[in-house]
Amino acid sequence: MTGSVEEFLTARRGTGRPLLVPYVTAGVTPDWTNIVRAYADAGADAVELGFPFSDPMLDGVTIQEAAGRAIAAGTTVRGILDEVATLDAGVPLIAMTYSNLVVQRSVAEFCAALAASGLRGLIVPDSPLEEAGELADAAADAGLDLVLLAAPSSSRARLREIAERSRGFVYALTRMGTTGERGEISEGAARLGRELKELTDRPVLFGFGVSSPARAAELAGHADGVVVASALMRRLLDGARPRELGAYVASLRRALDQGAR
Amino acid sequence: MTGSVEEFLTARRGTGRPLLVPYVTAGVTPDWTNIVRAYADAGADAVELGFPFSDPMLDGVTIQEAAGRAIAAGTTVRGILDEVATLDAGVPLIAMTYSNLVVQRSVAEFCAALAASGLRGLIVPDSPLEEAGELADAAADAGLDLVLLAAPSSSRARLREIAERSRGFVYALTRMGTTGERGEISEGAARLGRELKELTDRPVLFGFGVSSPARAAELAGHADGVVVASALMRRLLDGARPRELGAYVASLRRALDQGAR
Amino acid sequence: MGEMSWSGRQGVAVPPGARAMGDPGATGRFGGYGGRYVPESLIPACHEIEAAFRAAWGDPEFRGRLDTLLRVYAGRPTPLTPAWRLSRELGITLLLKREDLVHTGSHKINNVVGQALLAHRMGKERLLAETGAGQHGVATATAAALLGLKATVFMGERDIERQELNVLRMNVLGAEVVPVTTGSRTLKDACNEAMRHWVSSVDDSYYCVGSVMGPHPYPWMVREFQRVIGEEARAQCAAELPVGVPDYVVACVGGGSNAAGTFAGFAGTTARLVGVEAEGGAAATFGRAGVLHGFRSLVLQDEHGQVREAHSVAAGLDYPGIGPEHAHLRDGGRARYETVNDDEVVKALLRLARTEGIVAALESSHAVAWVIRAAGSGEIAPGSTVMLTLSGRGDKDIASIKELL
Amino acid sequence: MGEMSWSGRQGVAVPPGARAMGDPGATGRFGGYGGRYVPESLIPACHEIEAAFRAAWGDPEFRGRLDTLLRVYAGRPTPLTPAWRLSRELGITLLLKREDLVHTGSHKINNVVGQALLAHRMGKERLLAETGAGQHGVATATAAALLGLKATVFMGERDIERQELNVLRMNVLGAEVVPVTTGSRTLKDACNEAMRHWVSSVDDSYYCVGSVMGPHPYPWMVREFQRVIGEEARAQCAAELPVGVPDYVVACVGGGSNAAGTFAGFAGTTARLVGVEAEGGAAATFGRAGVLHGFRSLVLQDEHGQVREAHSVAAGLDYPGIGPEHAHLRDGGRARYETVNDDEVVKALLRLARTEGIVAALESSHAVAWVIRAAGSGEIAPGSTVMLTLSGRGDKDIASIKELL
Ligand SMILES: Cc1ncc(COP(=O)(O)O)c(C=O)c1O
Ligand SMILES: Cc1ncc(COP(=O)(O)O)c(C=O)c1O
């Protein structure tokens, strides 16, 4: 697999099918890399890889718990990168983590290490536009796509800037809240998707609260696809094996494909 | 028995023997009047009768407990007086109680009731010189001797006034403290006895902490006799019957008489 | 908030005002009440204290020292806070004199700093005190630490259980807390025990009485040390209120020290003075004349003259007597005394907490409860101004009202 | 007492002084620290708050209201109390800025009254807050009650156990206390949870941050609301001290709000500024640069960037970060940061209680412990003058130090 996240996703979008990006917390189980492979095999267009952090401010209980498990199991950035280096999933891998892990040495070093291991993108939810400048440069230098988040509360002016400065895709939050399955998709989600689509040609993906195949299909109708995290991680915490998680991703894939028809 | 406490005690003193005034809390047992009789039979020169009060500020634990028992058993001033009226002990009975019981209706009424029941004297430890004026008049009118207390802390001028205004005898406190057997007899006791004896011809009796026959004899050497309370009440609370209390008074009597020889 | 105007001009100098509550003279009599009903052994000490207090009170250096300590150490003057939201709900103007804000959390410190300075001046080494709610004990332990004196505090076993926090505070401050196991095991018995101990240690110990009670000069002296509450409040009202004087001046009454200090500042004005007692300890309402703890006053007692145990949710009001001057003010009609029950008190505490963010002591909440009731019934006319002394903060009571939430 | 002269001229007007700790501008940067590291969802709220604060802070009516509330409601100015006996023992002049005397018992109220007024002005209905020791939670519940707002307070389960009294106080004040069961179950996790809740309720809820932390404008705004401590103290020192300025200005540091407010008053003077952290939560000493709870600063973390749990006997100092401005002051050498251990702290609490009759909070006792150590070692030269901010009272800690007596 070559090319940037954005090139890859844009190409996939071109096939007319909504994009699907499932999430896994790196290190949450010893065989987590198998989960990545299972996602890819089940039709994921990219995989979001959570680098666990002790204080995940924007995560709900499910992903908090997954991160807690991974940290307790000794997961480190270095360890994840070593495993990623040997993992060829066939789709782009996008790191998602919090600023504190990114700034440890320097953002340039962090981005370079990610790229060297084969990661193609980066999401840092507590690094909004005004703090992302240096990071965006470092990511660009390393050849990583820095994905920015857009929220229902963002003004049109901010959305314009986010759409312009985001790389890979634009991560549209379905609602005001943390990750997690509970809570309604805000009415603003459709509006947010529409506005972003007006503002940019980049892929726009919805994330947060995509709790079922039906919900995924519905949301994909307002944008280019979805990111699914807590619904998968809850199943994993409840004991699901990579194969079962893959099957769930496949069911999401089917729902998206049918919804798009 | 006729005459005032003072006449009675002065006459007894004339026989050359130290005076002995044992104490009992009225109502502490159903047969408390037998204790009074046993005291008299054992050689008491007068008996101090405690009218129990809920808040006996100048009493130590032993007499507090005796008072508590008596009150719990339903003892009232009226009830005590009714029993006293039928009790001819052959020696003067002196009431000892706190101001609150004395002022209930009027001090005149209280004194008259005491006298009517045959009591001859009254001790009110929380009624010092400056508060005793009205009470002294009422007692005099009723024919009761109002006994005043003198303390080691009293100035010579106060002692003079106390000695002058006390009736029956002068109650000299052996020490600064409450009733009770514990605690040393203060060095000032001898001085206090001496000073009072210089100031008055009235009998001077020591009270507080007269905890043994030996102590009684020693103290009597500095004055005209002793009041013994806690040592008796402790025995009573420990289960002693009137006969045994009488025997203890007899032992005090013997010690005093021997000490005087 | 904000509907009621409030300039915030506080802490103004106290004007020398009408001193209607005056010197009770050598006999310490307030009408027929007061006096010095203590054993002869204590009479010299009472004389000595009276003489020392008269000298100190007339000595500008002593007054200056006391004043400095009250300001620089204890945090006076305390503000007069409008109860903005509760006032609106009740249709009156309710002003709170914030004794809850002084060091140690109640008005007791005003008195104790004064007495401790006096004891120090008299060369005493130890302070003795009785305590009910523990506030006076904490204040005494505090002043003892400040002046390098020892402190021994007598406290009923029942109060020790109810006010554990304050017991621990006294321990932390280095004071010895002596549990009193006699009688009702509350304040009344702690007073007896403190008196007994005082008799035997009067040479080096000073008995620091916690309210306007005890033998002369205590009721007078404690009122004088608490007068600062009323004088500050009077000056603050003068500066803040259109008419200068409130219609009502209200305070809770246990022994009656916060009320006496408050009333002293307003006795010479047109304000109606109201003392509020706990229903289960309402000596002014249900008491008869008697003698307890060294003074003559109204006392809760049975028909035979045995003193009753008081019962109140507020340990500091669990006292069967009332300061002698209050009995006198009642007889003369200058002040009136009302009662409220435990239930009203707890409700009042919660209501003030939730309308004003002020958690008052259960004792102080008695005054609040009466104002709520009287404003509700129209007894306090709509539009009236009420100055209420909030004698202390409720932290000490939180554990005991927990179950009632 | 009395060897040290003290005129008692307190509460003087605060002079407009050198404002060395200034406005961090639109980006909220203190050198390399600070910023606004929050999810995009919260950015509009942060902008809105910054704009509202800038407008309010420049609005005399808002300032007047805040000033009135601080004085008439919260009990400001607080006195500057000479620690007479401890000073003599240590051979220095130790002055205590008495934040323990303000309403609710700690400096937290200064900030909260300010933020609550701001939230009210912004039309918000609810205050959200995190709390460690519970003091900030109590202050928030208090201000919410005062202004008729709702309050939801997030508190770690471990702190709920340690500071039960404060939980009950919040309940009495009508606030909802939400136990936080994640992570170390202390302040850090309560912050995370408050942030998460804020994201989902940002329309009607205002996040009332409890220290100089969080995204811009909080660290700056909270310091400005706490500046009153330093400015009062500065004016009081000017009025009382021969040289006008103390040699040392010392405060404990959890997030760092009482220290920041104190330092702000003295930054433009020659005083040496010392922040004292708990050994087990000493981000300024043992931390590395990182990003936590929305700001960049020094953070206790392992080699991999996972944030460590702080450990201190003082719940309010159990925080693995430090306000960004402190990190900047440290880097620039304008302030230094020291650590003391739990044992020294408990000893210091008892020593102050027994020499001055002041039971300080465990948090505040950190500052006292350092002064005792530094005066003992000669690091603070004999004869020096030390101004120490006593951030709060120790009543909340009494139960937890019980075993240590
Ligand atoms: C807060 C508070 N208020 C009132 C009282 C009652 O005392 P007084 O009637 O003397 O003011 C107490 C007594 O402990 C108290 O702690
Ligand atoms: C009394 C007291 N002091 C200090 C602190 C620490 O906070 P900061 O460093 O923000 O002043 C706290 C926090 O709860 C506290 O309660």
From TrEMBL, chains A, B:
- Enumerate the Pfam families for this protein: Trp_syntA
As its record notes, the protein acts as a catalyst of: (1S,2R)-1-C-(indol-3-yl)glycerol 3-phosphate + L-serine = D-glyceraldehyde 3-phosphate + L-tryptophan + H2O
Alphabetical UniProt keywords: Amino-acid biosynthesis, Aromatic amino acid biosynthesis, Lyase, Tryptophan biosynthesis
Which PROSITE patterns would you find in this protein's record? TRP_SYNTHASE_ALPHA
- Documented EC number(s): 4.2.1.20
User: A GO molecular function for this record?
Assistant: tryptophan synthase activity
Q: Which InterPro entries match?
A: Aldolase_TIM, RibuloseP-bd_barrel, Trp_synthase_alpha_AS, Trp_synthase_suA
Q: In which pathway does it act?
A: Amino-acid biosynthesis; L-tryptophan biosynthesis; L-tryptophan from chorismate: step 5/5
Q: Spell out the catalytic residues.
A: 48 (proton acceptor), 59 (proton acceptor)
Q: What class of enzyme is it?
A: lyase
Protein function:
The alpha subunit is responsible for the aldol cleavage of indoleglycerol phosphate to indole and glyceraldehyde 3-phosphate.
Family listed: Belongs to the TrpA family.
Quaternary structure annotation from Swiss-Prot or TrEMBL: Tetramer of two alpha and two beta chains.
- Name this protein carries in UniProt: Tryptophan synthase alpha chain
From TrEMBL, chains C, D:
Source species: Sphaerisporangium corydalis
Tagged with keyword Cell membrane: no
Cite the InterPro entries for this sequence: Trp_synth_b_CS, Trp_synth_beta, Trp_synth_beta/beta-like, TrpB-like_PALP, TrpB-like_PALP_sf
* Molecular function as annotated in GO: tryptophan synthase activity
Taxonomy, top ranks, is: Bacteria, Bacillati, Actinomycetota, Actinomycetes, Streptosporangiales
Q: Which residues cross the membrane?
A: none
- Which family does the entry's similarity section mention? Belongs to the TrpB family.
Please state what the protein is called.
Tryptophan synthase beta chain
Pathway listed for it is:
Amino-acid biosynthesis; L-tryptophan biosynthesis; L-tryptophan from chorismate: step 5/5
Tell me the Pfam families matching this sequence: PALP
Record flagged with keyword Lyase: yes
The entry's function note states: The beta subunit is responsible for the synthesis of L-tryptophan from indole and L-serine.
Please give the subunit comment from the record.
Tetramer of two alpha and two beta chains.
The enzyme's first-digit EC class, named in words, is lyase
